[in-house]
Amino acid sequence: MSAISATAPAALRRDLTVDPGRRKARIGLAILGVLVLVAILAPLLAPHDPDAIESGRVLRGLSLTHPFGSDALGRDVLSRVIFSFRVSLSVAVGSVVLAFVVGIPLGLIAGYRGGWIDTLIMRPVDMLLALPALLLAIALIAIVGPGSLIALLAISVIYVPILARVIRSSTLVVTSQTFIEAARARGASSPRIVTRHVTPNAIGPAIVQASVLMGFALQIEAALSFLGLGAQPPTPSLGVMLADGRDVLTQAPWVEIFPGLAIAITVLAFNLIGDGLRERLDPRGVTR
Amino acid sequence: MNTRARFIVRRLVLAVPVLLAMSAFVFLMIHLVPGDPVRTMLGFRATPENVAQVRDTLGLDQPLFAQYTRWLGGILHGDLGQDFISHTPVATLLAQRLPVTIELTSLSMTLAIVVGVPLGVLAAARPSVVRRLTEGFVIAGISIPDFWLGIMLVLLFAGIMQVLPPSGYVPFLEDPVQNLRYMALPVVTLAFGEAAYILRTTRGAMEATLSTPFVLFARARGLSEASIVFRHTLRNAAVPIVTVVGIQFGVLLGGAIVIEYLFALPGIGRLVVTAINQRNYTVVQGGVLVVATLFVVVTLLTDVLVGLVDPRVEEGQTA
Amino acid sequence: MTALLQIDNLDVDFRIASADVSAVSDVSLEIAEGEIFGLVGESGCGKTTLALALMGLLPGTADVRGTIRFQGRDLAGLSDEDMRTLRGDRVSMVFQDPMTSLDPCFSVGSQVAETIRAHRPIDRRAARANALRLLTDVGIPEPERRYGDPPHRLSGGMRQRVVIATALANEPALLIADEPTTALDVTIQSQILDLLRDLRRAHHTTILLITHDLGVVAQLCDRVGVMYAGQLVEVAPTEEIFRAPLHPYTQALLAALPTAGQERGALRVIEGRVPDLTDPPPGCRFAPRCPHRMDECDRVPPLATEPGDHRVACWLSNATRAAGGEGPLEPAGSAEGASA
Fold it and tell me: What share of residues in chain B are helix, strand, coil (percent, to 5)?
């Protein structure tokens, strides 16, 4: 990106940026694809029942029967990681998808209409943005009570403002372009303009943001579960595993290490995809 | 009044409705709780007399708006209600805990900036060499969950090497050295992720600025490389960097909640988490309000700082 | 007059992942001290690349071959630091868009002053005094007040004046002005051109003026060079070029200019498109669009001198043919008077 400076002819600047982005996105997608498969095929892939307690096999290290070791109750760590991952990933993806479905129309309308509708929608949005994300999630859970589903809803609530803001910015950019004026001049109705012309062009940055947010959502879900505010027993969750692992940290560090690695790799995949998509979908850098 | 002062006043004025809206939200928390919050709070001590007494103290039978104004009035006098379990005023609890949280967040942010900005500048100015090294750091910092990192650090430094304590706290004024020993791991944990973001932002902003026409013109004028990088480029790149630092402070506050819990630091974050589990709503209310206010203040400071760096901002010109 | 700037066989290629772009191809020209030399051509013809090559400001992906002699020194042999001392001191460059040439975070006056201090060991106060004088010289009203203004508070024309002030701060021997008036209103344009003319007279600065606007050339330049797709096709004194253009491209350019009193109708255009510089034609790059195309045009025509110090690189010219080892043309195919 920086190798081509302002002194290079315009033709050059266009050419070079496609390559690195595509590679990143491919790697990210590949990793994510594998992970999603793992999540979906969990019952088939897990070597043991994640809840099976075997008091004889407590705190065993890595072995063929227990590739990730076993925990304080003799449960297989690998199987637990797989099933927990399933739950955590569902919450992360689900929350962002929900936020997307709610936030995109809001941002589109605010950006397209402008005026008092814009203010009406964006003021509360900005208020919500004024609070730190995790704090807001915790506050919401404090009101309603803990649980995976609540965590999903709480995370959605946090991310609706961010997505609404992003799509509003890109809507403003698209709407100011002359082809929209041309459509209006042809007598196209507003809903038609928005769906056929504005949305396809404005949605790019929102998609980039959404993929990055999925990574954050996973981390927030893990943090909430870690604090005991997210997934409640018997629902497994990576965050819960991280909390449990602390008790046996020095004796059996693998109980703590593997769930954390799972989170890190997944977040990395989401970020790679987001970065890769950004080259294509968000050339103006509307997303951070 | 000159432009700068007017700019600051304008920002302050804008902050007020945000704070009001937040306070309204926080206030409504108790009333949004399903069921009778008082009964939940008191738990097994919920005798009719106790319930009636608490309802009276909280003023829960009055009209909503009256309650809100009463609560706001209380805040302005420094009264945030009482902790229902220990009967300590919430304000006192928060006052005890606030310095810890502030120490944690400011030390972490400072460390993150001290590490992130210079590395980011280097990565932009000398791409090939430094970039490879920082690339890995950035990836790790963004992907690794901070509390997991904290646990891993505890494993390494407290468990295996046994050089630092795994948890606990001593106030700075009591014993500076011990204080720093206890804070070392929490601060490094939080700073790691932050530094990665700051590095990435700095590098991106510097690279973007280095390819602008005015940098080209600066080169055409024969200015020294050092002058170009540090005087011109950094100053212009500072705007997005400072902005991101402001936003990240909010993220940091959120992360601090978990880290305080993890390292048993007596800060506001941990207080709030414990209070939630105890259904201690007045404490949760007070804690959330203080943290949110802190964040709004930091955002305001960030805006002012950006205005100082880029003269266009204060006059309302878009960059 | 000795040549201030002597360029011999300059080639500039850009290496990118998929292909090489030949931006400048075998250009040779010289600029004499004190003259205003206009370099004309459409966007993408290589004139800016040439200028950047002179300044040593091309990115690392550029491969520069040939010699550039400035005040007798070969620039290719200079280190980065030596080039830096030349820039802004002995040779300066002014860019097209004054909106983006100045650093938005610093006052205009300080940017002039810093250019002085980058090359001379003088203190802040002296530099400021010099800068104020320069601002006055370029016609900025109330320079004391304007000194501390950030760029966005000045109009486009004012900013360009400040840019010129920084460029001339150290009295360079050569000023390269790359489309200095293109981004400005027409009224401001002529003011800036007048400024350049006056400054040339006052400081004996040689000016290389790059533009696509033939009107600007007519107003200001002593000699003109015409570039097309990286090749230098014609060089002549200004009146000569306008009076009797020899190269078909130049003829087409001039014919395409609308004149006052011209009848309504379609504007005369040049058919075809600019060649792809990753795969340019082997010889004359204008050949594919040239109405006088011949077999010889697959070989690069050398730049040769016709009477009147008029140089052209075209197989229609007998001087070129002589230089290129071809026999003279039959009278029927004479170059002069051929219409585009």
Answer: 80, 0, 20
- Exposed (0-12), middle (13-18) or buried (19+): which is A83, by Cβ within 10 Å? buried
The token pair that represents B318 in the structure block: 């878009």
At A102, is the pLDDT very low, low, confident or very high (cuts 50, 70, 90)? Answer: very high
Using the Cβ of C118 and the Cβ atoms of chain B, whether some distance falls under 8 Å is answered with yes
Q: What was the pLDDT predicted at B133?
A: 80
Residue-wise DSSP of B177-214: HHHHHHHHHHHHHHHHHHHHHHHHHHHHHHHHHHTSHH
Q: Which residue has the higher pLDDT, C83 or A48?
A: C83
Cα(A137)–Cα(A148) distance, rounded to whole angstroms? 12
Query: pLDDT category, A76, cuts 50, 70, 90?
Result: confident
Q: A214 CB near a chain B CB, below 8 Å?
A: no
Which residues fall within 8 angstroms of residue C113, CB to CB, at 6 or more apart? C124, C127, C128, C130, C131
- pTM across the whole model: 0.80
Residue C23 to residue C14: CA distance in whole angstroms: 7
Q: Which of A24, A138, A144 to mutate to test the interface with B (most CBs of B within 10 A)?
A: A138
Q: Which among A130, A228, A256 has the least Cβ separation from residue B18?
A: A130
Span B288-316, pLDDT tens digits? 888 888 888 888 888 888 877 777 766 65
Which residues of chain A are within 8 Å of residue B154 when distances are taken between CB atoms? 249
- Provide φ and ψ at C198, rounded to 5°: -65, -40
Residue A5 pLDDT > 70, yes or no?
no
B48: contact with A, CB 8 A cutoff: no
Overall size of chain A counted in residues: 288
Selecting from A141, A229, A249 the residue whose C-beta is nearest the C-beta of B159 gives: A249
**Inter-chain CB proximity A242 and B277 less than 8 Å:** no
Q: How far is CA B304 from CA B4, B42, B114, B307, in A?
A: 9, 45, 21, 5
For B274-295, what is each residue's pLDDT tens digit? 887 777 777 887 888 888 888 8
Of the candidates A237, A262, A216, A223, the residue with the CA atom closest to the CA atom of residue A87: A237
Contact A268 B139 (CB under 8 A): yes
What is the ipTM, given to two decimal places?
0.85
Inspect the interface and report whether the beta carbons of A246 and B253 lie closer than 8 Å: no
User: Could you report the average pLDDT of every consecutive run of 10 residues in chain C (340 residues)?
Assistant: 83 84 90 92 87 89 89 85 90 88 90 92 91 90 90 88 91 91 83 88 90 87 92 93 90 80 70 82 88 86 87 87 81 49
User: Chain B contacts of C87, Cβ < 8 Å?
Assistant: 219-222
Residues A204-254: tens digit of each pLDDT: 888 888 988 999 999 999 999 998 888 887 788 899 889 888 888 888 888
CA distance A70 to chain C (A): 51
- Closest Cα in chain B to A268: B143
The alpha carbon of residue A267 and the mean position of all alpha carbons in its chain are separated, in whole angstroms, by 8
What are the backbone dihedrals phi and psi of residue C335, each rounded to the nearest 5 degrees, phi first? -80, -40
Task: Determine, for residues C21 and A9 on separate chains, whether the beta-carbon distance falls below 8 Å.
Answer: yes
Interface membership of B213 toward C (CB under 8 Å)? yes
A127:B258 CB<8 A: no
Interface with chain A: mutation pick from B23, B185, B211, highest number of A CBs within 10 Å = B211
- Dist CA B144 CA B150 (whole Å): 10
Q: What percent of chain B has pLDDT over 90?
A: 15
Phi, psi of A35 (to 5 degrees): -65, -40
